[in-house]
Specification:
Elements (H helix, E strand, L loop, with lengths): L2 E10 L18 E9 L4 E6 L3 H9 L14 H5 L7 H11 L7 H22 L3 H5 L6 E9 L4 H13 L4 E5 L7 H15 L4 E5 L8 H11 L6 E3 L7 H8 L5 E4 L5 H10 L4 E2 L3 H4 L1 H15 L2 E2 L7 H13 L6 E4 L4 H4 L8 E2 L2 E3 L12 H7 L3
Parallel strand pairs: 4-5, 4-11, 5-6, 6-7, 7-8, 8-9, 9-10
Antiparallel strand pairs: 1-2, 2-3, 4-13, 12-13
Helix pairs in contact: 1-4, 3-4, 6-7, 8-9, 10-12
Length: 382
């Protein structure tokens, strides 16, 4: 079997991503990249990637720059077309080294990640096995889901939104970004309102959003102001690469500190582990795909850290994250983007359904979900 074509489609939804003005649901991503890897055996693999899709497309489509063995500026498609898609580990490193002068992080590793996920999807379909079996095993059939949404602008809207998610069956809710960080007093009131509606038996998670730049001492003050409301974790309280700051914060508070959606490769996550981050959040479409994430899980287990994958874009990425959760000996949550936009909800033919606050791990070959080609055609702009 050989790879015949690697394509990245740029998808655009009708509405712009924005913060909610009241309790209504945010519309979800405006743009998304969708990778399709085709083979001469008629098997295709897919992955979405939440990044600047036009830039990622350029990284995939760029021409070959050098002779074999000298690759460092090459387009990602040129590095893997003609290769055996089952050699996921070798192809990962070939793409990584072949793009190393413009890559290693950012959009290049994100496009690489999507290709890697698609290769694992192909391998699962070829062998007739779900990805979690290829990763090494299935420890669970379902994973508890947390609703992932934006902060609402008022305590009243926070309570209304929290009640909405409880009525949908969620037992955990993460509020993030939005208005959080504009006023310390309002921040506390918003979190207090969410906790009062969720009650003592459900989990509240807080994503403070690193766009509000804080010193470590300011971050400690923010977390301590929220601790009376018992957040399960506080996410991205500092700039993603402030490793020394994270070490200071983690050592000063009782609340679990989460970080990693912007991080990539096992080398980057090793730095987060050394910084004493409690919860690692690899996004499969950013960290290096399944090939890197499997190593990150092993590292986290050895260091006694939790891994809760970031998976905000679509049901396709959520399905991939369920496979990673199934593979972990100790899994806690799967992130579920509650946005109702078409790129979030319609990219797969049968959207994921929650039962008793949990999502079932897909058991079909590969990712175990079928991409909706009609939706791709409808929203594709490049």
């Amino acid at each position: 079997m050989k790879i015949t074509k690697v394509e990245l489609f740029v998808l655009k939804s009708p509405g712009l991503y924005r913060s909610p003005e009241a309790a209504e649901e945010p519309p979800g991503p405006t743009y998304m990249g969708l990778v399709k890897v085709s083979t001469d055996a008629g098997i295709a693999g897919y992955s979405d990637v939440e990044t600047s899709a036009p830039v990622a497309k350029a990284a995939v489509d760029a021409p070959r720059w050098s002779e074999p063995g000298l690759e460092c500026f090459d387009g990602l498609a040129s590095l893997v077309e003609g290769e055996n898609p089952l050699e996921v580990e070798r192809l990962w490193y070939k793409m990584y080294r072949g793009s190393i002068y413009y890559g290693r992080r950012g959009v290049a590793i994100q496009a690489l990640s999507a290709i890697d996920i698609a290769l694992w999807d192909i391998a699962g379909k070829f062998y007739g096995q779900p990805v979690h079996i290829l990763l090494g095993g299935k420890w669970r059939d379902r994973v508890r889901a947390y609703a992932s949404t934006l902060f609402r602008p008022t305590p009243e809207a926070m309570r209304e939104a929290a009640r909405l998610y409880l009525d949908q069956g969620f037992t955990a809710v993460k509020f993030g970004w939005g208005v959080f960080g504009r006023s310390p007093e309002l921040d506390v009131r918003l979190v207090e309102a969410a906790r009062s509606e969720l009650g003592a038996g459900n989990d509240l998670l807080v994503d403070t959003g690193w766009f509000v730049e804080r010193t470590p001492k300011q971050a400690i003050q923010v977390i301590r102001s929220l601790e009376p409301y018992r957040p399960f974790f506080v996410e991205e309280i500092l700039h993603p690469e402030d490793y020394d700051g994270y070490r200071q914060v983690a050592g000063a508070v009782e609340t679990l500190i989460a970080c990693g959606e912007q991080e990539a490769t096992e080398w980057g996550f090793r730095r987060l582990i050394e910084a004493q981050v409690d919860v690692l959040q690899p996004d499969l479409s950013r960290c290096g795909g399944f090939t890197a994430a499997r190593k990150i899980v092993h590292m986290a287990e050895m260091a006694n850290r939790l891994v809760i994958p970031h998976s905000w874009s679509s049901d396709l990425l959520t399905a991939a994250s369920l496979h990673l959760n199934a593979f972990q000996r100790r899994a806690v949550f799967v992130e579920f983007n509650t946005s109702q936009g078409p790129l979030s909800r319609e990219l797969v033919r049968e959207p994921l359904r929650m039962v008793d606050g949990c999502l079932a791990v897909p058991c079909g070959p590969g990712l175990g979900v079928e991409v909706n080609e009609e939706i791709i055609a409808r929203y594709r702009v490049a």
